Amino acid sequence: APDDEFALQIRSLAERAGKVFGKDFIVTGYNGSHLVQKIAPDLPTVVRPVDSLADELIDTLLKRIADPNKP
């Protein structure tokens, strides 16, 4: 699913239709929403390491600024 909230909605609709999560179907969220993890800790989600990606981007930019000719 495009995000955790949407994955939770899909799961809810499937369960209302009589399907069993983990047996009849599985859905995975995306973004590691803290709220959804508290509400539905068994819902798989993809967690993006935003903080570490931002740190790496800043380091790369600073290195390019210091030496624009270095690849």
| Biggest sheet layout | 2 strands, parallel
Q: Number of DSSP strands?
A: 2
What is the alpha-carbon Rg in Å?
19 Å
Q: Report the total helices.
A: 3
Report the span from N to C terminus: 37 Å
What low-confidence regions span 5 or more consecutive residues with pLDDT below 50? none
The average pLDDT score comes to 92
Give the fraction of residues assigned to helices.
40-55%
Shape: rod-shaped
Instruction: Output the structural class.
Output: mainly alpha
Strand content: 5-15%
Name the quaternary structure.
single chain
Strand order of the largest sheet: 1-2
Question: Helix and strand string, N-terminal first?
Answer: HEHEH
How would you summarize this macromolecular structure in one to three sentences?
This protein is mainly α.
List keywords for this structure.
3 helices; mainly alpha; 71 residues; two-stranded parallel ribbon
Folded structure, characterized:
It is a single chain. This protein is mostly helical. It is built from three helices and two strands. A two-stranded parallel ribbon has the order 1-2. The longest helix is centred in the C-terminal third of the chain and has 17 residues, at 50-66. The model has no long low-confidence stretch (mean pLDDT 92).
Spell out the blueprint of helices and strands.
Elements: H1 4-16, E1 29-30, H2 34-39, E2 45-46, H3 50-66
Parallel strand pairs: 1-2
